[in-house]
């Protein structure tokens, strides 16, 4: 579907008099809170610190980012707390406090605006009117495109979308991840279950990721440093699909890992550095080999707390490394039911192996039937899960 709106002199006058009424009529194809992309002529607009958003059918867009591509000058008048826009013979001053704008003819009108990260956002429809632009809306993306009739357009909407598809897909994934995190904030934390996987990545990890993707479940992976380097593709996939990544040591050898506190810290920092080099994510979450008890005595924990590392053990052990598939499922179900009575969120220990692949679908279905949301670890909402009950880590 492709919709064009050409702005005439008459429509300009009407819009200036009734901005709030007509501004709400545009982008109705983009439902509230839907991600929307903005283009100016043949270029997709990059928004660094404030992004477009839709409220009750009105799409608000950072003024400066769009104006720059249109060769307009945007300045801030500190004395009047106003944003001033100039382009050719056009002039507009927006009083941020009073939410009133004044044009080059000294006419004053109310304006709907938002402020995010010290950026002024105006309704897209208003920006189009002010700069006398044509608007087209393309459902894929979706993309709202501002077109200057004085500019020669090289790309159709289809071509514009195809040219930027990779960038758009990446932004959509990031947006969905942010929405999921916001959902967590609104949920009862006892209704969240955490699937965690140790000792990978390996040849079984891809199948585990396939299952998680099928069930729209998120998980947390505690990984071994040499395996991270060997299975980079799986690690990058974890990140792209909004799972959490964490460190599980370099050697997984308790005689080396727990030789002394510095040895433990070195193994975790090496693993953390490798994760950062591959993914760009600096994860502070760790799980020590074989769990924190009895090895993580106070001097170890003091150092980890000083280095701002979080230690996650588990409260549900699947024993997937030694039990039959049937026994694994019943073991998890029994422990989860006990935690549910205590209103505690399950943190379930699995490993990257065939028995886990066999049982994971049934366990996920059980958890969802019990009303759990399956989420990845979120550092912003860290909860203590260590056998020492040490709140510092």
At CATH's second level, what is the architecture of the largest domain? Alpha-Beta Barrel
Name of the CATH superfamily of the largest domain: Glycoside hydrolase/deacetylase
Share in β-strands: 15-25%
Shape: elongated
- Unreliable stretches (pLDDT < 50, length at least 5) are 1-32
Query: How many domains in all?
Result: 2
CATH class of the largest domain: Alpha Beta
Question: Average pLDDT across residues?
Answer: 86
Number of helices: 14
- Percent of residues in helices comes to 25-40%
Largest sheet: 6 strands, parallel
At the third CATH level, what is the topology name of the largest domain? TIM Barrel
- Head-to-tail CA distance between termini: 53 Å
Q: Please give the number of β-strands.
A: 22
Based on CA atoms alone, the radius of gyration comes out at 27 Å
Helix-strand makeup class = alpha/beta
Q: What's the multimeric state?
A: single chain
3D structure, described in words:
This protein has about 400 residues and is of the alpha/beta class. The protein folds into two domains: about 1-165, Copper Amine Oxidase, Chain A, domain 1, CATH 3.30.457; about 175-380, TIM Barrel (Alpha-Beta Barrel), CATH 3.20.20. Helix content is about 35%, strand content about 25%. The chain has helices spanning about 10-15, 20-25, 65-70, 125-130, 155-165, 165-185, 205-215, 225-230, 230-240, 255, 260-280, 300-305, 325-340, 355-370; strands spanning about 1-5, 35-40, 45, 55, 60, 75, 80-85, 90-95, 100-105, 110, 115, 120-125, 135-140, 145, 190-200, 220-225, 245, 285, 310, 315, 345-350, 375. The strands form five sheets. Strands 15, 16, 17, 20, 21 and 22 form a six-stranded parallel beta sheet that branches. The model is unreliable at about 1-30 (pLDDT under 50).
